[in-house]
Amino acid sequence: MKQTNAWNRILIGNDNHIERRNISWNVAGSAIYAVTSILLGAAVTRVLGADPGGIFFFAFSTFGQQMFIVSYFGLRPVQITDTSGRHSFGDYRSFRFLTCAASVVISALYVMLFVSGPVKKTVVLIMAVYKTVDGFADCWDSEFQRNGRLYLTGKSNAGRTLLSVAAFMAVLLLSRDLVMSCVAALCAQIAGFFLFCLMPAGALRHIDYTVHKTYAKELFAEGKWLFLSAFLDLYIFAASKYAVNSFMSDADNSYYSTIFIPTSVINLMANFIIRPVLTTLSDDWGKHDVKAFVRKINRILKIILILTFIGMGAGYLFGIPVLSLLLGKETGANLKPYTAALVTVILGGGFYAALNLLYYVLVILKKEKQIFLIYGISCISAFAVSDICVRKWGISGAASAYLLSMILLTAMFAAAAWRVIRSAPGEKYDS
Hints:
By secondary structure, the protein is mainly alpha-helical.
């Protein structure tokens, strides 16, 4: 008990400078989570080779992330904005039990039906469960934020991620066994959930564990459109990866996932720019200040454009050599033919960052059903284009399919947003 109290005192601290701690720990936790997710597959490729790296890339950052979305069910925005307490933490927790159970069942069915080879089946299933636990922990992270302690969310993200990565890398380097390394990461994730979610939550007051009878129906209704949109968004983003996984080798999977790394960096940087201005965008729209609303959107799009062109230039000049350092000499040499594909994917990443901004704009404009309709159309297109391009042109085709999908989705979001903005009441924007 003394050890538990001491741990909670260290983790929770006092209420001094809480706003500053909220910002700094949220940034640190998000950055650690994003960077380690990007680099872990490269580490596997460097240590074990391209084939195991490809298996892990797909299991962790493609299918595993899709299962995170299932367990997450788009409920974080609902939970953190439920400041009136219409739903208790017990309601949200009970609903996450259901979504996490669904994630595990879907994972098992997918592995049985679509994944071949005992090692790949095992790795994909373990990483899907790992991401499901991550989605379950998000319920506690959301509750910390709802209670004004976003810094605990940042500490949870950072602590669970670093603990899992440390366990994974230690076992990987000692055993050179991918399955054992994944098991170690899963065990560390569960331990991190206990240390950084359950223990501090038990020390906080005002957390209501009551479960109401109608929680499942109500939370499903509130989260369904956000979930479906997020699920389809991730599929469209990863459609070319799924196609490479289906029609090419595990080694090719590793190469293609590696050239995807810079796009994730661009998107991470763009989100640091986008998220702080969402509140002011909402205020501008609420006040019918359309000129200010559009001016801010244009300014962010210009920053994304500049970041994208810088990324394309850096990718062309230095991308393959830098990525080769991550993968090792032998595997890195196999990336040399893919400079054009790398630049293409980076350009697609720029469009993805832009469409993320436009997604938030449509959310502010209260056009959730239009978002889902656009995602539905783009999902069908991305599936068809990715399969055709990968079968015909391999990795270069996958990069082109990704770019085309991002252009189409961005164009439809932009058209939908512009139609609403042009017809808005109040001061008009003079184009």
